[in-house]
Write a structure and sequence with these properties.
This protein is mostly helical. It has 10 helices and 3 strands. The relative contact order is 0.08.
């Protein structure tokens, strides 16, 4: 039932979930409401430091709680989850809409539209090109700022953003790291790293 489900957007500043103690207090308070078994959904759980060990401890000591966690980078699962939750988790990658899903959601949609605007559900539902563009710009800014710059503690945010936006204009073309390094005033090694981080963030 709904009373047994707790959804926690860990990146929501209104919840003020800065530590594991904050998260535990929220979950423990929900448990005390009386449901025998509860299901806890933690979205963007990587925002809380030490979440891996906390979930391992909770999984091993509370059989009445089932967790579903999500994050927005590939290495989040490959590195963080696999290291401490081996044998305790099932992994499922959720991407943007496939073309057949796009058509199901928007029967009048064309392949050209799918290639131009992509498969983000909210953008697919948007009626105008301006609305679609605004949504995609918002997604891009969030991914660059949160999943690339903040998560990897990068200092030169402007250079990273400019380089990645430049690459998005040449999708399908060859990438010349030497040219990019000169264009944005960074080392070849840095350019290669930023591209790798973008791939990790599914950009």
């Amino acid at each position: 039932s709904r009373d047994a489900i707790l959804f926690v957007p860990c990146d929501n500043p209104l919840l003020k979930l800065r530590t594991i103690d904050d998260l535990h207090g929220l979950i423990d308070g929900f448990r005390k409401r009386g449901s025998r078994r509860i299901y806890v959904f933690l979205d963007e759980v990587q925002e809380i430091s030490g979440w891996e060990r906390y979930l391992k401890a909770m999984y091993d000591s509370h059989t009445d709680i089932k967790f579903v966690i999500s994050g927005s980078t590939a290495s989040f699962f490959a590195r963080d989850v696999a290291s401490l939750l081996t044998g305790r988790h099932f992994y499922h990658r959720i991407g943007t809409l496939l073309y057949k899903e796009f058509v199901r959601l928007n029967p009048q949609g064309t392949l050209r539209e799918y290639l131009e605007w992509g498969g983000f559900p909210e953008a697919v539902r948007a009626k105008s090109a301006a609305h679609k563009a605004a949504l995609l710009e918002s997604y891009l800014s969030t991914i660059v700022e949160r999943d690339i710059v903040k998560r990897n503690a990068l200092r030169n945010r402007r250079e990273v953003s400019a380089l990645l936006r430049s690459l998005l204009l040449t999708v399908g073309g060859k990438v010349n790291l030497t040219r990019l390094s000169k264009q944005f005033g960074i080392s070849v090694k840095s350019a290669e790293r930023y591209i790798s981080l973008a791939e990790d963030a599914f950009l």
